Amino acid sequence: MKVFHNQAAIFPVGYHANRIYWSMRHSNRRCKYLCYIEEEAGLPLFKIKVVEKGHDDLILTGPTPKAVWNQILEPVAQMRSSSGTLKLFPVYLKGEDLFGLTTSAVTRIIESLPGVEACERYTFRYGRNPLMEWPLAFNPSGSARSEPKVSQSVAGAHQGRHSKSSQYRRMKAEWKTNVYLARSRIQGLGLYAARDIEKCTMVIEYIGTIIRSEVANRKERLYESQNRGVYMFRIDNDYVIDATITGGPARYINHSCAPNCITEVVTVEKENKIIISSCRRIQRGEELCYDYKFDLEDDQHKIPCHCGAVNCRKWMN
C-alpha cells in the first residue's frame, strides 16, 4: 500500500475510467482516453489508451498519473498554441484529477475499499472508516445469525476497576483505532486488529437495526430470496440486530473454531448491546474471529467451516 497512494489520491489496481479530452492530432476535436491502473513488479503502472476515430489506438504508460498524462498534455498544448487556439497550461493540471481519482463519488468509493487504513500519507476526505452503509456481497456460507446467549462473560479481570458502562464508552471512542477491514484468510472480507489488543478488552460493537424475532424470520427469507448474505445477531429471545443492509464493520468478523474474541450482551443505559471482546491477547495484524455458535443442523443444511484451526469442527452448525 505504501507505493499505491500519495497525499492526494489512492491508486487501486484494476481502476478504469473513460475520459473525454482534447485531441493530440486535431486542435478543434476531442477524443476518448481510457485510463487504467495496473501493477507491475509491485509498483503501480498508469496506462492510457487513446481512442480516436480515423487513427489506430495508442497505448501510453507512466509511473505516475502526471507522467502518463504529460505525454498527452504537452502535444495538445503545442498544437493549440501553434494553431492560435486558446492556450492550455499543462503544468497546472494534475494527473490524479485527469484520472478521475479526485472526483467526489470516486473518492467515496475508493476510501471504502479494504485496506485503505494503511494509506498513511493520504489525506482522507470522508473519514477513515466509511463502512457503515457498505452493501454486502453474497455470503456463500448462508445465514450469519449468531447466538450470544451461550457466550461466557468477558472483562472479568477489569470488573473491579472499570464498570462495563465505562468500558463501553471507552470502546465507542476508540474502536476506529482498534480495527481495519481487509481481505480475509478465512472467507471474503474480515476485520483485523489495527494495534495490539490486551485480553478482556472490548473491541467493537455489533450494530444494526434492532427488530423483533418474527420480523427477523421474515427478513431472513426475503434476503435469501434476493441472493443476499444475511447478517443478524440475536440479542435475546425477542430481539435481533439486523446488520444486513445497514450495519457496522463488526458484521465482517468471521467464524473460527479457535476464536480470539467472544461476544456478550451488555446493558448500557437500559439498552442491550452486543459487544465483541478479546478472550486472549491479540497481536496487531491478526484477524479477529469468534465462534458463531450456530445450532446443530442435519447433514442437508450443514455449513462448511473454513477457519483452518487445528481443532476445526469442519462445520459451523
Key structural traits:
alpha+beta; Double Stranded RNA Binding Domain; 2 domains; four-stranded antiparallel sheet; 5 helices
User: What proportion of the residues form beta strands (DSSP E)?
Assistant: 15-25%
> Poorly predicted ranges (pLDDT <50, ≥5 residues)?
129-143, 149-161
Q: Number of folding domains?
A: 2
Silhouette = elongated
User: Widest sheet: strand order?
Assistant: 1-2-3-4
What portion of residues is helical? 10-25%
User: Any idea what the CATH architecture of the largest domain is?
Assistant: Beta Complex
For the biggest sheet, the summary is: 4 strands, antiparallel
Beta-strand segment tally: 14
In whole angstroms, how far apart are the ends? Answer: 37 Å
Please identify the structural class as seen in this structure: alpha+beta
Rg calc: 25 Å
What quaternary form is this?
single chain
CATH superfamily assignment of the largest domain?
SET domain
According to CATH, the fold-level topology of the largest domain is Beta-clip-like
